[in-house]
Amino acid sequence: MRATKDVHARRVLAAKLQLTSLALNCTTHKEICARFSAANALTAFTPQNAYKWFAGKALPRVSRVYSDWSAVLGGHLTPSFIAASSFNEFAEALSRSHALPRETVGRLSPDSLPVRAPDTADVSGEPSAPRADHPSAWRADHVLPGRYLAISPAWSPLEMGRLVVGHVQIDALDGHRSKFTYREDLFGRAFVLSGEMIADTRYAQAILHADFARRAWVLNLHLPPFPASLLTGLLSGSAVLDFDGRLLTGRFLLMRDYSDGAIGAIPAYAAPDPVLIDEWLGLLGYREGKERLSFAKNAVDFVLNFRDGILIDVPPEDQRALGLALDKLAPHTGRQDALQETGRYSSTAKIKSLLP
Question: Which of the four pLDDT bands, split at 50, 70 and 90, describes residue 129?
């Protein structure tokens, strides 16, 4: 019985440390050890001990570790509370000072973190870096899942200079895979793009397919630190309403929804008004104040006014002009073969009539 309690205590400690690392945006043992060293130069939170504690192999032998832990978290939690609290109590208290998505807390519960054997030490005697599947390793699926409000520059020529507003849902699948679903409410119906998203330690990428057209869109996102309130990247494809048929790439900004979906549906096109975005941020659960309005202004500037222009596009007329110029330089035999393969011309005479 005592051995079982000891194992559970070590699991709880490992889970608390994992949650602390994510709250502090620490992705390695070295980074979190540096935080403890800054609080106390003589801390027992050394790389060797951190490795054992994160792996669920041991418990701290000195109580001073919990005082250092309290200082690292800004003094919001007492050393005795950090040491004696359950994981759920610790997570609830930590969430008051750090934004912790509910899905993440659930995945980091002690029961979900297997206690593994130590990794093989290197020739220097130091433990090697944790494997990607190790409970102390930072993984994208810890931070990405959740709901987001997305804004991007309008692609339609009729709405140029305005914002497109959409809703995003990211659901963890397994490993580093997630399902990404993007929805715009446009002209009385929902337009949905969805696909599988993969991630490493720096980027998340997805090929999104539409429910209304035989097209695909490519999404590339920077992978943010915990708690991932903001995701940014590029969305490439073609506009649903674009009679010119351009290929386009635009900036894509996602703001995490902390309101459990209370914001509801928003029409797809909106004015680039910081006050409007500030109101949305309030509905999403962000604290009111000058900083929130300042963020709203910066978000509009990020999406619409970056130095390379609002959009990167490839107009068909540009391709036609370049293509025609190069076609005129192609050898006659090659041009004849290309025309014959199209099946649009039934005789050599018709082919020759097209050649200069």
Answer: very low
Contacts of 133 (CB under 8 A, 6+ apart): none
| Tens-digit pLDDT profile for residues 11-24 | 899 989 988 887 88
Neighbours of 258 (CB within 10 A): 18
CA distance 271 to 299: 13
Whether residue 147 sits in one domain with residue 132: no
Q: Are residues 200 and 330 in the same domain?
A: no
Between CA 45 and CA 54 the distance in angstroms is 11
If asked whether residues 165 and 262 sit together in one domain, one would say yes
Can you give the residue range of the structural domain that contains 301? 141-314
Q: Are residues 171 and 245 in the same domain?
A: yes
Residues 335 and 284 in one domain: no
Instruction: Give dist(CA 166, CA 266) in Å, integer.
Output: 7
Q: How far apart are CA 92 and CA 155, in angstroms?
A: 42
CA dist 321 → 182, 192, 225, 315, 325 (Å) = 35, 34, 45, 10, 6
d(CA 205, CA 177): 10
Handedness of CA 72, 76, 77, 78 (dihedral sign): positive
Q: pTM of whole model > 0.85?
A: no
Domain identity same for 249 and 310: yes
* Cα–Cα distance, 277 to 261 (Å, whole number): 16
